[in-house]
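Long-time lurker, first post. I've been practising inverse folding by hand and with some scripts of my own, and I keep getting stuck on stretches where the structure tokens seem ambiguous. Below is the full token string for one chain I'm working on. Before anyone asks, I'm not after the true native sequence, just a reasonable design that respects the backbone. If someone could post their per-position residues I'd love to compare against what I wrote down in my notebook.
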């Protein structure tokens, strides 16, 4: 399980919105935390109207202050500054992965939708592309500050893919450590919400497509019935739901309605992260919802 968190920070309040999640999970999981900053070459003095760290001395002092202010006693917090100026902050963070021996990156998105800050896009993109480092994405509150973090309800969207089901064991361990309720969900598209190649073929065989989707719903309910019984025998409080509609929109809406604190998804990222961020269900959930999102990278074929 996760025992060493890496929290990249740039000096802004927006980036600090990742700290409550890091403190909460470090307490529950008994993990250590490394606060990390890369000195950027020709760094701007501000980012989104907020201060931006520009030299190693200021960064070290800043990280030390945060380590004392943001974490309760008993949590081991290290501070690491990559002092050599870097042209690419994301590359520098990825290069430190083995040296720092972290197993979870916790970072905050600097916006929503098309306003996602490049800091998020580039770092998350490259860390997940490595295929081994999970990334927890949090969001600032409406004032751009750090919202409180809790983990009472965890949503695990599944799609019938055995690889994507690898998000479930991770979710179980977090739920056990936090005393959280697990909510399994599968969204079967409606005929009208199909996209891509499925949408093209559905126009040729509308009746057959509708029947296939209905059969998929029935199969999902049976699968979830068995999984739910297993979870409950293991002592988990759990629920399972099969819904119909656009997957990303339905997941985001259901997560908000159920007051979910964390969504856990597994991803291959097997065609490169540009495609991942451009059109995947995961990216759309991130743009539609401000609920924390844990991405579990899967080995590439």
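-- Answer (accepted) --
I ran through it position by position. Result:
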């Amino acid at each position: 399980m996760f025992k060493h968190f890496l929290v990249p920070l740039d000096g802004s309040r927006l980036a600090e919105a990742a700290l409550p999640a890091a403190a909460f999970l470090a307490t529950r999981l008994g993990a250590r935390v490394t606060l990390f900053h890369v000195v950027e070459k020709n760094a701007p003095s501000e980012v989104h109207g907020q201060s931006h760290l520009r030299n190693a001395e200021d960064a070290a002092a800043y990280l030390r202050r945060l380590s004392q202010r943001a974490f309760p006693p008993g949590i081991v917090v290290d501070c690491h500054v990559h002092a050599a100026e870097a042209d690419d902050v994301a590359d520098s963070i990825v290069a430190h992965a083995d040296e720092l021996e972290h197993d979870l990156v916790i970072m905050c998105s600097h916006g929503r939708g098309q306003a996602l800050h490049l800091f998020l896009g580039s770092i998350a993109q490259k860390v997940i592309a490595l295929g081994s480092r999970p990334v927890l994405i949090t969001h600032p509150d409406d004032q751009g500050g750090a919202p409180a973090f809790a983990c009472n309800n965890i949503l695990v969207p599944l799609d019938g893919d055995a690889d994507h089901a690898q998000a479930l064991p991770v979710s179980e361990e977090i739920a056990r450590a936090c005393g959280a309720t697990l909510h399994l969900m599968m969204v079967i598209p409606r005929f009208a919400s199909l996209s891509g190649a499925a949408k093209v073929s559905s126009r040729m065989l509308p009746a057959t497509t509708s029947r296939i989707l209905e059969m998929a719903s029935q199969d999902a309910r049976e699968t979830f019935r068995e999984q739910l019984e297993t979870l409950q025998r293991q002592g988990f409080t759990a629920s399972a739901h099969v819904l119909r509609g656009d997957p990303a929109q339905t997941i985001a809406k259901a997560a908000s309605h159920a007051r979910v604190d964390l969504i856990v998804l597994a991803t291959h990222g097997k065609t490169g992260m540009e495609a991942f961020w451009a059109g995947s269900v995961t990216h759309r959930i991130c743009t539609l919802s401000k609920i924390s999102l844990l991405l579990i990278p899967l080995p590439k074929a």
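A couple of notes from the structure itself: The chain has two domains: 4-138, 153-262+270-293. The domain at 4-138 is CATH 3.40.50.620 (Rossmann fold). Happy to go over any region you disagree with.
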